[in-house]
Input
Amino acid sequence: MFKHSLKLFAVALFALLVAAPALVAQMPITPELSWFPVTEPTDVGGKILQPGTYVIKVIQAADSRNKIQVWSQDQQKLYATVLTIPHELKPNETMPNTMFVFYEATADHPRALRTWFAANPPGDHGHDVVYPEGRAKQIAVASKLPVVSYPETVPETDIATAPLTVQTPQATVEPYTPPATPMISSADKNTTENTTEMPQTAGSNPTLALLGLAAIAGAVAIRFGRA
Output
């Protein structure tokens, strides 16, 4: 009886250890990492992504800025690393759940990612994509919205600390001031129809399965202890 219980315990524990990595991999996307479905050519910070499904995630950068990276689904190939600034929310507004806001496509240029709202992020803000000056001017004039930009001459490795300016719809340049208080302008609200809002990326089944395996292992261990 002793040997039989020990064998059952070992088998259950082994099954738990083998299944755990796969189950963890299927668990919901973390707050600062989301699936990014692209249905048409899309500009992300000056990089053109072709249709497909990507993974987008945050990298902490300098001051109030971050970088976001766009990876393949298996996170083995990096497609883009771009600079972002906070897109703040008003105190009485709720955070969208994994939503992407775009500047509309024009005859000469594909649509461009404007803002990514991650699911349940640490702070109450989204991530506004910053574009190189030339592309930012095009987007600002076409969308009739201001677009934050950095100099074309700044290498990608230095964009986190690059000086920023605002390209206006009137084709002028203004200084950029980091937001001191949460904000969403009326222009922001007018463009939210051009969005992609994602459902939850996974349910609770993997977690329940993992807990179930743990319970089985625990029950066998109790039985082993009483034998």
Remarks:
- The two ends are 7 Å apart (CA to CA).
- The helical segments are 2-25, 133-143, 186-190, 205-226.
- The mean pLDDT is 74.
